[in-house]
Each structure stands twice: as structure tokens, then as C-alpha cells.
Amino acid sequence: MSNFYKDWLARSAALDDRMKRARIVARATELAWIETEQDARSAVLIGEAAGFETSGTTLAKAEVPVGWRTGRHAHGEEAIHVLAGTGFAVIDGARYDWKPGTTLHVPYRAEHQLVNMGSDAAVYLSAH
Questions:
Q1: pTM score, two decimals?
Q2: Which CATH architecture fits 25-127?
Q3: For residue 68, is pLDDT > 70?
Q4: Which residue, 83, 49, 78, 77, is CA-closest to 64?
Q5: φ/ψ of residue 48, rounded to 5
Q6: What's the rounded Cα separation, in Å, for the pair 119 and 116?
Q7: What whole-number distance in Å separates Cα of residue 94 and Cα of residue 98?
Q8: What angle do CA 84, 87, 88 make, to 5 degrees?
Q9: pLDDT tens-digit readout, 6-31
Q10: Out of 70-74, 107-111, 112-116, 123-127, which region has the weakest mean confidence (pLDDT)?
């Protein structure tokens, strides 16, 4: 029978080692932009998909074109910080207007959607 405590300490030490060697900086020129059903353009800034060692946190940057809306969807908790554009979010059926500087909290499994009502692309950061 294995010693769960020693196994736990070994996993912790291995994680400490990976974290010490982990990537620290993301540069705009390195972003891998993709198209999804939810966002016209999205890129992971910090997270495993961008080569960062984290404990599960992901920070992404996304764009919603003029006259466009994200798909209605639900997932884990998310924080959205608007950098550019104007519009509104629908979170569990309630409307919340947003503009640059607005931060929205999307609770765990809340159905949500972003709608760009402005004359410029909406740009936001998403932490989840």
C-alpha cells in the first residue's frame, strides 16, 4: 500500500519545481487568436493553453465585432472586464449595460451572453 502522505508531498514538490520554471510574461505578438462560437476572436493570455503553469486560472482576451453577440452559454464562474466598446450582457435573464471600465461577475453555471451595441469592436478580458 502506498503512503498517501509521502505521495502528496512528492506531488507538491514537483509542482513547486514546475512553478519555479514556469513562464511569467505573455507578449501580444505571441497570442494565438482563434474563432469560437462565443467570440469572434479569443486568445489565452495566461493559462495552460498559452504555456503557463497555473493552478487552474485562465486569463483571456476576446473581441465581439460591431452588431454581433456571443452565443448564449454557461460554464464555471467568470469575471469579464471591458476594455473597449459598448453594449450589454444578459446574465441569467437580467440585462447589464457595459462600457470601457465595467467589470461583470458571471456566477457559476449562469447562462450569459454579450451583445455589442456600439460602433466599434468590443474588447474584454475574461478571467475564469
A1: 0.84
A2: Sandwich (2.60)
A3: yes
A4: 83
A5: -60, -35
A6: 8
A7: 13
A8: 125
A9: 888 888 888 777 778 888 898 999 99
A10: 70-74
